[in-house]
Amino acid sequence: MKVLKLLSCMLLICSTACSKNDPDSTKTEEQPKLAANFVKGADVSWVTEMETQGIKFYNNAGAQQDLFQILKDKGMNTIRLRVWVNPANGWCNTDDLVAKALRAKNMGLGILLDFHYSDSWADPGQQNKPAAWSSQDITALKTSVYDHTVAVMTALKNKGITPAWVQVGNETNDGMLWDEGRASKNMKNFAELIQSGYTAIKSVSSTSKVIVHISNGYDNSLFRWIFDGLKNNGTQWDVIGMSLYPTTANWASLNSQCLSNMNDMVARYGKEVMVCEVGMEATEAAICKAFLDDIILKTNSVSNGKGLGVLYWEPECYNSWKGYKLGAFDASGKPTVAMDAFLIK
């Protein structure tokens, strides 16, 4: 009996020692790295135009699939879509927007709506008024912003779609609807245009969070100038949106500056922040993945849990679609390794 007890003790000691040396025996469920509601997404506003021209998309196994499914399988939970007032070719008008938003909704993806308030691109270098608004003064422009915003939001609502986030303007570094709404000429006008959009959005969907979106997320002085101006004019907004397009050489330093800026925005205005656009050369996929891994974790680390998420701009572009080379799909129409950054949970 003593011998049996001794053997039993020896076996127990051996078992314990082995379990400490065997990583499989001590496995625990991996802890999540991101907040449960962290936004991982992409702007794919070109998708319907691309499909009409015969462009197809493939998963990493080489099987043709719907782009939205490929993105979802890569860990994305949100689709960003732009809307123009009266674009010449119809793409990104209200009907095209609704069609894409329905696809996103049916795929179980959240929606970020991006109002450009133009017939074409609005960005730091151009904020052109829609042709139909070209002769309007600031009073009429505020009404047009309100009416257009309500009309688009209502078109979505009629299809059972409620955008979780809505941008009032796109990369409005110097305001929008130039020259009446150019911030460097009249910050008050710009602030009132933002307020018109904000009020219109909330009148249709009180739960949608309103974003004011500025490029160069590393440029703290630019952000302080814009948002001090909005605050001083009594403007309302919910989220501070940023763009970030670093190079392969400077992404680490720009990511650090962007994080500092995000934390400053939270401390200064008490608002949430989101990186609404990112991109890097499609041919530099490995470096792009490192950039994305880092900015996703940095955004998630923003103080008080106010870093909402990161979205890639038009990753589905390949073979230099429309000359754009910052996508994240390879020449065969499959996601590059950069897209694996969004698989993080």
Automatic annotation (TrEMBL):
Coiled-coil regions listed in the entry: none
Record protein name field: Arabinogalactan endo-beta-1,4-galactanase
Signal peptide, first to last residue: 1-19
EC number(s) recorded for this UniProt protein: 3.2.1.89
Enzyme class: hydrolase
Family recorded in the similarity comment: Belongs to the glycosyl hydrolase 53 family.
Keyword set, alphabetical order: Glycosidase, Hydrolase, Signal
Single GO BP term: pectin catabolic process
GO MF annotation list: arabinogalactan endo-1,4-beta-galactosidase activity; glucosidase activity
Annotated source species: Solitalea longa
Superkingdom of origin organism: Bacteria
Reaction it catalyzes: The enzyme specifically hydrolyzes (1->4)-beta-D-galactosidic linkages in type I arabinogalactans
